[in-house]
Specification:
Layout lengths: L1 E5 L3 H13 L3 E5 L2 H8 L6 E5 L7 H10 L6 E6 L3 H9 L4 E5 L3 H15 L6 E4 L2 E4 L4 E4 L2 E3 L3 H12 L7 H8 L7 H15 L4 E6 L3 E6 L5
Parallel strand pairs: 1-2, 1-3, 3-4, 4-5
Antiparallel strand pairs: 6-7, 7-8, 8-9, 10-11
Helix pairs in contact: 2-3, 6-8
The structure holds calcium ion.
């Protein structure tokens, strides 16, 4: 999943971008409101975290612009503690949630997860496929009740494939969710990650390839 963070405070922006990356999300971090708005004109995200006070264009104007053109991307607005008016306006014009500064990183991450979950219409982050249980919140994958440890990128690639629910995803669609602008590792990297997942989940999951169409995931034949 890919998120856009719009925050001009260097310290806070870096802290939240880093903690989201540690969760395995692809993160683009913008410090300038007008530049963020121009990126949003062509790049779609799974969620947006936006500060209210920004150079050139404030967070409220960015949110207003999104909603005005019918973009329903979930938005978490960051506000100053005392700025009740900002929170009311943000919610009124279509913010999904807000968080007053300063906040605890764990609460921030929990709200981001809730936002992403609601956007996808899921009550929990547990997906059962064949013998495997995938828990996106706890970040745990188990096969036959044995926990598998997966590096972040492999975990999120598995999540992207599982959430596609059998629909084919091509490499561009996968890369768009897995990488940010700074880490655009290209189609070969996806092949490498797919190969690793196939090896680790041999006999449990099948990742099908259709030339020109992409990848889809399903339980292995002997795992049903
Ligand atoms: Ca600010």
């Amino acid at each position: 999943m890919r998120l856009l963070v719009i925050e001009d405070d260097e310290h806070l922006g870096r802290a939240i971008a880093d903690c989201l990356r540690q969760e395995g999300y692809a993160i683009d971090w913008e410090r300038n409101g007008a530049e963020a708005a121009s990126i949003l004109a062509f790049q779609s995200y799974d969620a947006i975290v936006v500060d209210v006070g920004l150079p050139d264009l404030d967070g409220i104007a960015i949110l207003r612009g999104l909603r005005a053109r019918g973009d329903r991307t979930p938005v978490l607005v960051l506000t100053a503690r005392a700025a009740v008016d900002d929170r009311v306006v943000a919610l009124d014009i279509g913010a999904d949630d807000y968080l007053a500064k300063p906040f605890d990183v764990r609460e921030f991450l929990a709200r981001c997860r809730a936002l992403l979950r609601r956007a996808k219409g899921e009550a929990s982050d547990r997906i059962v496929i064949g013998r495997m249980v995938f828990d996106g919140i706890a970040k745990i994958v188990t096969v036959d009740n044995t926990q598998m440890l997966l590096p972040n990128r492999e975990f999120r690639l598995l999540e992207i494939l599982l959430r596609s629910k059998g629909r084919m995803l091509d490499k561009d669609q996968i890369a768009d969710q897995l990488f940010d602008f700074d880490h655009d590792a290209g189609p070969n990297a996806i092949e490498v990650y797919i190969a690793r997942l196939r090896k680790k989940f041999a006999g449990v999951l099948t990742i099908r390839t259709a030339r020109g169409l992409g990848y889809a995931i399903e339980p292995a034949d002997d795992a049903a």
